[in-house]
């Protein structure tokens, strides 16, 4: 089955460019478009996308609030890929904190756009881990976020789960973690699932942000 993508951006040229790049791939299908975050929830319910590629800055409802509303309202929400002009942007980090699964620069090359959509849909590794680290270092409270620290304390991760979380934060996929720890991929998947459940995280990105903001993993 192809990855179903919904495009949300107030610039028609950006939507047209993304559509042209994505629809050139046999395993990706663009199922809808919207010009503002306010239209996201009804469109998601209508077209059932796997991934929403959404501008972080829009006039009526921006990508941050649209992400919060989508995750709060839709029972089984799609993955959210924030599309942005600037990489080192506090808006991007706030969107990730709100529940977005990753971000993509508008100036990205076609191959990078396709890779980002596929990676977000698969959900088995962190998109642009170095950039997420940089954002966490600049906007993530330097490991002093009390709420994040409380989450880590309540989680009571085992030693192996802690190892897995640190490797996730470095951007390693399940297969790469399996090689590093000399275990099977299914074992890693079980550990990742346990980490996400204990942290109450929707996905790897949210788990890694909690790790950074709590000081469990240093973003530098």
UniProtKB/TrEMBL annotation:
Response regulatory domain ranges (all copies): 4-121
Record-annotated membrane-spanning stretches: none
Residue ranges of every copy of the HTH luxR-type domain listed in the record: 150-215
Entry-linked PROSITE patterns: HTH_LUXR_1, HTH_LUXR_2, RESPONSE_REGULATORY
Keyword match Cytoplasm: no
Record PTM 4-aspartylphosphate, positions in chain: 55
Cited InterPro entries: CheY-like_superfamily, NreC/VraR/RcsB-like_REC, Sig_transdc_resp-reg_C-effctor, Sig_transdc_resp-reg_receiver, Tscrpt_reg_LuxR_C, WalR-like
Identification of the protein by name: Response regulator
Annotated organism of origin: Streptomyces salinarius
